[in-house]
Specification:
308 residues, alpha/beta, Conserved hypothetical protein from pyrococcus furiosus pfu- 392566-001, ParB domain, two-stranded antiparallel ribbon, Chromosome partitioning protein, ParB family, chromosome partition, DNA binding
Length: 308
């Protein structure tokens, strides 16, 4: 995508939409030919548009909508109408595409409305993505994984650096980085964050564990024992300290191992296509050979190499 002119979003969605008080006060009387009712609607105005003429926002970062909350909003709309208009862009003819307000649009459909008040805006794809993301973040409707995925999309599709992204969404760089780091976690942990089983605090602690198996172990401990964020942070420190000590011991052992034994260990690792550990007792020449396997199939492969 070609680099678009950057629009500062530090002041939020209204800065990007460039709303003015004059635009906000435009009445429904301005409705004319292409609002789905045979009337023209000039860009920048507020009018009533047929719901069936509105497509959803393909850049919408939010994927989960609470059914109970939608029904409650629909009942409120039936009684009092929709107070805050949605925002759309015209995509040709009498068709429109939603920029922001999908929850309101869904609730209006449930309420049985055929028309909905809307701001008509001009926006390119980059602005569509930014508007949808920013509106939801400001309303705190996105879960942490949805925010992280949306940040990554803005970086990839809008050619933004992390510092620029932080300016756009009014977040400092460390906050943006912490969200993006969530995408390095295993899928099972990401799904748990998305579903609300793990908090952002739990996730930030897990990010500090580099070994995936250990991450999953701690994750299971959180789920099974309902560990608090502080308890998880303590567990992470213990796991990392133990890993550091084991690494130090392994390095010491490798340094103290003779060249001959080191070569034997390397040759065995090459033969079995997996890490092999040679433990040698320097005093009496005794020792052990450890060959780990990752699954039953992997064990069968190793046994075949041993002619078992």
């Amino acid at each position: 995508m070609a680099q678009q002119r950057k629009i500062g979003l530090g002041k939020g969605l209204s800065a990007l939409l460039n709303d003015t008080e004059e635009v906000r006060q435009v009445s429904a009387a301005q409705k004319s030919a292409n609002d789905g009712l045979g009337r023209e609607v000039p860009p920048g105005s507020v009018s009533h548009i047929k719901i069936e003429a509105i497509e959803v926002n393909p850049f919408q970062p939010r994927t989960d909508f609470d059914v109970t909350a939608l029904n409650e909003l629909a009942e409120s709309i039936k009684l009092q109408g929709l107070i805050q208009p949605i925002t759309v862009r015209k995509i040709g003819g009498d068709q429109y595409q939603l920029i922001s307000g999908e929850r309101r649009l869904r609730a209006c459909r449930i309420a049985g409305l055929t028309e909905i008040p809307a701001y008509i805006r001009t926006a390119n794809d980059q602005q569509m993505l930014e508007m949808a993301l920013i509106e939801n973040i400001q309303r705190e409707n996105l879960n942490a994984i949805e925010v992280a995925l949306s940040f990554q999309r803005m970086i990839d599709e809008c050619n933004l650096k992390q510092e620029e992204l932080g300016d756009r969404v009014s977040k400092n760089r460390s906050t943006v980085t912490n969200y993006l780091r969530l995408l390095r976690l295993p899928p099972a942990i990401q799904a748990s964050i998305r579903d609300g089983q793990l908090s952002m605090g739990h996730a930030r602690a897990l990010i500090n564990v580099t070994d995936v198996d250990k991450q999953l172990y701690i994750f299971q401990e959180i789920i099974n024992k309902g560990l608090s964020v502080r308890k998880v942070e303590e567990l992470v420190r213990l796991v990392n300290d133990a890993a550091g000590k084991n690494k130090s011991k392994a390095n010491t052992k490798e340094k103290s191992m003779s060249f001959e034994f080191q070569k034997i260990q390397d040759d065995l690792a090459s033969k079995f296509a997996t890490k092999v550990t040679l433990n040698v007792n320097g005093k009496n020449g005794k020792g052990t050979i450890e060959i780990p396997f990752m699954s039953e199939d992997d064990l069968s492969r190793i046994l075949e190499l041993l002619d078992w």
